[in-house]
Amino acid sequence: KLVSREFRPEDTVVDVQGAKIGGRHLAVMAGPCAVESLEQLLEAAVIVKRAGAQFLRGGAFKPRTSPYDFQGLEEKGLEMLAAAREKTGLKVITEVVDSASVGLVSQYADVLQIGTRNMQNFNLLKTVGRTDKPVLLKRGLAATISEWLNAAEYIMSEGNYNVILCERGIRTFETYTRNTLDLGAVAAVKTLSHLPVIVDPSHGTGRWKMVRPMARAAVAAGADGLIIEVHPNPAEALCDGNQSLTPENFSLLMNEIGAIAAVT
Ligand code: PEP
Ligand code: MN
Questions:
Q1: What residue owns the CA closest to ligand 1's atom 8?
Q2: 6 C-alpha vs ligand 1 centroid, how far in Å?
Q3: Mean pLDDT computed over 198-205
Q4: 36 domain residue, yes or no
Q5: Which pLDDT does position 59 carry in this prediction?
Q6: 27-42 average pLDDT score
Q7: 37, 124, 161, 167: which sits with the fewest CB atoms below 10 Å from its CB?
């Protein structure tokens, strides 16, 4: 298989116009769960950039559990992401939720994000596989490691080898946390595949107090990067405020992981 270490013994390094993910490079993607307004996004982007991250995250299309929750600003949100890239130089990662919008999202994004709920949307996987954009593939919330790697294979089989895996927590019997962050999967994937793997401790825990400890653990476990929800004012977030870091806590996290990466 194309995803396997047998096919490619050395680590794949995905290069997003100079921002590298994989190998010995620690990539950090951070920003709000959802793009809410231009002011909110630009404020978040400046915070994220100042703390040292290379990528700005933010959803313009939001796949929400309830149809009555905020669904995202759609193309207006994509335009705001492009404006934030213009202002800060950060690369933009944002979610694409269906095959029909892959063309539109590709006009704005540097990295296409496939969400947990779409990990086995094979038509979507094949469509992003035919683009020239790097793809961040989140693990399905009830997917085995093998199913996750097969999803990556769908993308690669169409010719796009720039796939980044993302562990974001799985469904277990535990209810204290929103999901159970499976850091064992990071170590497993590192032996099975050459693809970079990053960790999302925000969705992986659902609790902001757990985000810094689990981010530190992820880096120590060998993750190639992190994707973190950061909001200028988490209490006012339209989406996922409970798991979003304040600017101060994000800055602390960046200092901590730098120290851990230096010794691992
Ligand atoms: C997100 O990153 O905001 C998101 C919706 O993540 P997931 O697909 O992992 O739930
Ligand atoms: Mn979120």
A1: 115
A2: 30
A3: 98
A4: yes
A5: 98
A6: 98
A7: 37
Q: Which ligand has the nearest atom to the CA of 243?
A: 2
**Is residue 1 in a domain?**
no
Domain that holds residue 99: 14-263
Question: Is any atom of ligand 1 closer than 6 Å to the C-beta of 59?
Answer: yes
Q: Is the CB of residue 115 below 6 angstroms from any atom belonging to ligand 1?
A: yes
- ipTM (interface predicted TM): 0.99
**How does the average pLDDT of the chain come out, rounded?**
97
Q: Among all chains, which residue has been given the structure tokens 């080898």?
A: 161
Task: Write the CATH number for 153.
Answer: 3.20.20.70
Q: Who's near 256: CB < 8 A, 6+ residues apart?
A: 212, 215, 216
Q: How far is CA 178 from CA 38, 168, 243, 251, in A?
A: 29, 10, 10, 24
pLDDT at 264 over 90: no
| Domain count of the fold of the chain | 1
Of residues 264 and 244, the one with the higher pLDDT is 244
Residues with CB under 5 A from ligand 2 (ion): 33, 240
Report the nearest-CA residue for atom 10 of ligand 1: 116
User: Which region holds residue 166: left if phi is over 0, alpha if psi is between -120 and 50, else beta?
Assistant: beta
Tell me the ligand closest to 237's alpha carbon.
Answer: 2
